[in-house]
Design brief:
Length: 295
């Protein structure tokens, strides 16, 4: 299968590319610059879609970049890096003489309203209560191609855990030094997925000819995981204590009130359709996932 991947050079993109190539698929990236096995977004807009069997979009500016102040300019970047890249790919698919068979978009569980008790499946409502939920709605709407023969799949991802990037890389040093702990109360749900499973779900969606619609990209044990549990398990995997909670005011001071919600609140998300589709998780449990990452 020839697969075109937007955002393929990022954290998740590298894992997906490695998996797809190991399974005999050809991968071309869409990124800012052209190169080997790579085209630019500009070239895609001007020249249209190269011949391919499937398209995936993983592009998106890191919302939780602590070095970027949360303001209008950064907000615009967060939106355009997701919505505009998706729109560009959707237009290229719609205009293609030979459209691909599959079109997969990875968005986020921010679509669902944070709640300490509610459980959400792929059929649950959401998408219209704060900046991030509306962002996911716009992002997914940008992917729609009425009448297209390409089957569409949306994977709503939780917090991605893996080596060399994502949430764990930012937390490792404080935890290694014994200075880690839960964020805020630690009671908030923590929807997570191992990077190999997120790549695995996308690959499963590409290879399963009948699969379409929304899949929740979270681990099966994710609904039972709180931020406090995550902190304890990460500390245990490192052989360190997790005694120092980070107060909510400090999280808000670093990230701003709007972004802090992503860390201080959470959703219990169930991968119902993902499991029903026949995907088998490599890391269904948090302790196994974290031991693999910090080994």
């Amino acid at each position: 299968m020839r697969v075109l991947v937007g955002g393929g050079t990022g954290f998740v993109g590298r894992a997906l590319t490695q998996l797809l190539r190991s399974r005999g698929h050809e991968v071309t990236h869409v990124s800012r610059q052209e190169g080997k096995d790579r085209i630019s977004w500009e070239e895609l807009s001007h020249s249209g879609l190269p011949l391919c069997d499937a398209v995936v979009n993983l592009a998106g500016e890191n919302v939780l970049n602590p070095f970027r102040r949360w303001g209008d300019a950064f907000c615009r970047e967060v939106i355009s890096s997701r919505v505009e890249t998706t729109r560009t790919l959707a237009k290229a698919i719609a205009d293609a003489e030979q459209p691909p068979r599959a079109w997969v978009l990875v968005t986020g569980v921010g679509y669902y309203r944070p709640s300490p008790t509610a459980e959400y499946t792929e059929d649950s409502p959401g998408g219209d209560f704060d900046f991030f939920s509306r962002l996911v709605s716009s992002w997914e709407a940008a992917a729609l191609i009425p009448g297209s023969p390409a089957r569409g799949v949306v994977v709503r991802s939780g917090v991605v855990l893996g080596r060399g990037g994502g949430a764990v890389s930012q937390m490792l040093w404080p935890f290694r030094l014994g200075l880690g702990g839960p964020l805020g109360s630690g009671l908030q749900p923590f929807p997570w997925i191992h990077i190999r499973d997120l790549a695995g779900i996308v690959c499963h969606a590409l290879e399963s000819e009948c699969l379409q619609g929304v899949l929740n990209g979270v681990s099966p044990s994710s609904p039972a995981t709180s931020n406090g549990t995550f902190a304890q398990e990460l500390a245990a995997a490192l052989g360190r204590p997790a005694l120092l909670p980070v107060p909510a005011w400090a999280v808000r001071a670093v990230f701003g009130a709007e972004r802090a919600v992503m860390l201080l609140e959470g959703q219990r998300v169930v991968p119902k359709h993902t499991l029903e589709s026949g995907y088998h998780f490599i890391f269904p449990d948090l302790s196994g996932a974290l031991k693999d990452i910090v080994a």
